[in-house]
TrEMBL record:
Stored PANTHER family: ETHYLENE RESPONSE SENSOR PROTEIN (PTHR41523:SF8), TWO-COMPONENT SYSTEM SENSOR PROTEIN (PTHR41523)
EC number: 2.7.13.3
Listed InterPro entries: CHASE_dom, CHASE_sf, HATPase_C_sf, Sig_transdc_His_kinase_HWE
EC class: transferase
Organism: Croceibacterium soli
Record-given protein name: histidine kinase
Length: 541
């Protein structure tokens, strides 16, 4: 009997030690995840601050016919770069140089930046143009090493510039060795922002305003915003391999558990790995339980269970409060964005309607119809919690007043394609104006009139929608330019970021819209609710 009692108490004590150690491991893992999230947020904040300066520079340089050295130096000095720009080597300008412009570029550089500043490496004809470093501020001996280097000749830099041109937003390159290193292998990266010259036929790429970064310095600057605990940090480019390691803060001695998570820095994917210190053999509480377990094993086990349950409830409550704060911030930003866009559309409609109206009644009627078109699309977006909206729903909502008539025919067809909220609003305005025009002057004014609306994908991220009228009165060759034409060709085209093909053919109006198919922004729309007897219940996203 004494041996049985001893073995029973020993088993209870061992179970208590195991439960304590498991709770410690879970707490350490949660803390490691929190450290990784905080560091990732600091990295993204540093990159966003640098991107904001580059966006401002791109807006200024786009308005200049030429970018002389004096003007660029003045622009950089007036930025008054503060602590948010730490970790960067500076801000540079790289102009587009095509094969026939190399001599002119070298002469320009001889005038603006005396010394050996010719384009290099030599243009071999395998690329459509070169993108040499034209200016780089601050003007230091280190930065002068990069002047004249054709960044488009390097595959890693070229891929980033092509992506930046495609998306028209700041884009980071992969792991590179900066030219400022003078042949060294210290990892770095660059963030490019394209600068376009707007002309009547579209946008023409003038060059790139960019910032080079030493990856180690960038990581150190980001950690000034979020001072982590005693953890090791490693940053990888795209994938977690030793060859892709770009920055690290090593932890002395052995490491314990690790946690990895993806980080998006200026439209480029990094992988962040955080390593915790090695865990001790047993925690202090486990040692105490082991020593006194033979005397108070049952009582201690009950106490540990109560403490563990309380700790889990506290952690669940903290997670819930953090989610509430994140949801509130996301909804506030989203609401602000939606209200601004809607007000901008309303103001544009009022201005153009007033300009085209001949009297107050015509102004009121035109404005009423267009606001109702916006309202109809808003109703659809509200039903989807401002998520994606099908093209078919937008078209049906705007053509609802006309589909029931039996003296004309409306044909609608296309695949199930979802649109982002702003694109759905723009499409609704365009369909309303086309339908209003057809009902006043076109195919919907005569029996037998026929309107066809078809759409299909022409690329993974683009859909082509075609409006075609037949059977209506012949379209006049000489006609005044109306509000609908201005709205579709200017406001809608600008909002969709694609030109609109609007043809007033004699047999009927034809209109072709190219609409982007964007990835929906994922954010929690309803907060999870904290249950009385457990962790937060799952919410709806």
């Amino acid at each position: 009997m004494p041996v049985a009692i001893f073995l029973l108490v020993t088993a209870v004590t061992a179970l208590s030690v195991f439960a304590i150690e498991r709770g410690e491991d879970q707490r350490a893992e949660a803390q490691l995840r929190a450290e990784a999230s905080a560091i990732a947020s600091a990295l993204e904040q540093r990159a966003n601050a640098s991107s904001a300066y580059l966006r401002a520079g791109a807006a200024l340089l786009a308005m200049l016919d030429e970018v002389p050295a004096s003007r660029f130096r003045r622009f950089v000095s007036e930025l008054r770069l503060d602590a948010d720009y730490r970790g960067a080597e500076g801000i540079g300008w790289a102009m587009i140089v095509r094969p026939g412009e190399i001599g002119a570029f070298n002469a320009f550089m001889a005038e603006q930046a005396p010394g050996n500043r010719e384009l290099h490496p030599a243009f071999d004809g395998s690329q459509p143009y070169a993108v040499p470093v034209t200016f780089l501020q601050p003007d230091t001996e280190r930065n002068r090493r990069a002047i004249g280097f054709d960044m488009f000749s390097d595959p890693v830099r070229r891929m980033a510039m092509i992506e930046a041109e495609r998306t028209a937003r700041p884009t980071a390159s992969g792991k590179v060795a900066l030219r400022q290193e003078g042949g060294g292998d210290q990892p770095g990266f660059l963030i490019y922002m394209p600068v376009f010259d707007a002309i009547e036929t579209g946008r023409v790429l003038k060059g790139f305003i960019y910032s080079p970064f030493n990856a180690q310095d960038f990581l150190a600057a980001a950690l000034e915003l979020e001072r982590p605990g005693a953890v090791g940090i490693r940053l990888y480019d795209s994938e977690k391999t030793e060859a892709n390691l770009i920055a690290r803060i090593s932890q002395e001695g052995n490491v314990g558990a690790t946690y990895s998570m993806p980080v998006t820095v200026a439209n480029h994917r990094w992988v962040l790995e955080v390593a915790a210190p090695p865990a001790e053999t047993l925690s202090g509480l486990s040692m105490l339980t082991l020593i006194f377990g033979l005397l108070v094993a049952s009582l201690l086990m009950l106490l540990v269970r109560m403490l563990t349950q309380q700790a889990n409830e506290d952690e669940a409550a903290l997670v819930w409060f953090a989610e509430q704060a994140s949801i509130r911030n996301s909804l506030t930003r989203e609401l602000n964005h939606r209200v601004k866009n809607t007000l901008a559309n309303v103001l544009s409609i009022i201005a153009l309607t007033r300009r085209r109206a001949k009297d107050l009644e015509e102004f009121a009627d035109g404005l009423d119809g267009r606001i109702r078109a916006l309202s109809a699309t808003h109703d659809l977006l509200t039903q989807s919690d401002w998520g994606t909206t099908p093209i078919r729903s937008v078209v049906d909502a705007e053509l609802a007043p006309y589909v029931q008539a039996e003296d004309h025919r409306i044909e609608i067809g296309g695949p199930d394609i979802q649109l982002a909220p702003n694109d759905a609003l723009s499409l609704g305005l365009a369909i309303h104006e086309l339908a209003t025009n057809a009902a006043k002057y076109g195919a919907l004014t005569r029996p037998g009139g026929h309107v066809t609306i078809k759409w299909h994908k022409i690329a993974p991220q683009l859909v082509r929608l075609e409006w075609r009228e037949r059977g209506g009165p012949p379209v006049k060759e000489k006609r005044t330019r109306g509000f609908g034409t201005d709205l579709i060709e200017k406001i809608v085209a600008n909002e969709l970021n694609s030109p609109v093909e609007l043809d007033f053919a004699p047999e009927g109006v034809n209109c072709v819209l190219t609409i982007p198919v964007r990835e929906p922004t994922a954010f929690s729309m309803r907060a999870p609710r904290l249950d009385q007897d457990g962790p937060p219940a799952a919410g709806r996203s």
